Amino acid sequence: MAELTGLADDRALLGRTSTAERVADILRSRVAEGYFLPGTRLSEDSIGGALGVSRNTLREAFRLLTHERLLVHELNRGVFVRVLTVEDVEDIYRTRTLVECAVVRGLGEPPYALDDLAGAVEEGRRAAREGDWKAVGTANIHFHRELVALAGSSRTDEVMRSVFAELRLAFHVVDDPRRLHEPYLARNQDILDALRTGDRDAGEHLLAVYLGDSLERVVEVYARRVADGAQGLD
Does the model's pTM come out above 0.85? Predict the structure, then answer.
């Protein structure tokens, strides 16, 4: 399985105290980075072997990620990466808007620690220069993850890790990733520039408009692709 490439390298992340939570962290990250596509069946033998963990540990990790709505268990078939509905996508963006805008609004007095945010902007530009639009999407997720991290809240980070992993599942359905992601390279820079000047109000406004536009575009494409897929089953 191509999506298992490099997974064995993540063994080092488990350390000596291998736990289902740590396995879940690894698999969640893999979903967020785009290695596992929606609808992919996850093999216990292949993944357990790659990570060097027991079947019971892996099943508990699957259970945790099923609870987070990233995986789904189908009776007598196995565990699969979840395929989102249009309503799921709308709810993801509703959550993002509530959390991300609140983070910017509550930043306090400048200056802000923006090095990691700036790094994500440069990561996106580098991927665009290479024509790797999947990587641009990943960099975009990294930008928003670092934006949320500005709150300095481990609880908020934890909640949004799952939300961003779900977002990646929606991105997979988009048929033209360049058209989706390219406009947000400049918009990420605009938000970064606003925060560099300490203008939280401008940053929040830019972010709110950004998320609204992104929701409209993703839902438009997602609804069409879901409808096409349903017709193909007729």
Answer: no
